[in-house]
Amino acid sequence: MQGVEREAINSRGVPNTLQYGFSQAVMVKGGYRVHLSGQVGVDAHECLVGPDLEGQTFAALDNIEAILGTLGGDLSHVVMLRIYIAEPARYDQEGVVQALRSRFPKSPPASSWVIVSGLSEPEWLIEIEAEAVLPELP
């Protein structure tokens, strides 16, 4: 298998986003792109993992990791996250920061964070879409 070259870009003159668990940009060479549907804070039985944003964020990232695992990848292959936070959790974003810093300790993906009025279920506080680049198949 051919490898993937991945470089996190965090330029001077723009905010230091590494402290929040994401990079300003990620440059990728090689591999193939995978787009994951939005994942929420539920387990494999579709049960909510808990009422707090941090717990739901970890569960959503666990789901992303599980999907990538079936493709031979892991979270280190994630290059972009789109994070949708429900309005009721607007001021609890430190939990998202902690989850991202924990799951992406080095070379974190780029990301966009959007506050939305709500998600498909009222108890859902976060939904995370991901893009990953996996090594090319032989």
From TrEMBL:
<comment type="similarity">
    <text>Belongs to the RutC family.</text>
</comment>
<dbReference type="InterPro" id="IPR006175">
    <property type="entry name" value="YjgF/YER057c/UK114"/>
</dbReference>
<dbReference type="Pfam" id="PF01042">
    <property type="entry name" value="Ribonuc_L-PSP"/>
</dbReference>
<protein>
    <submittedName>
        <fullName>RidA family protein</fullName>
    </submittedName>
</protein>
<dbReference type="InterPro" id="IPR035959">
    <property type="entry name" value="RutC-like_sf"/>
</dbReference>
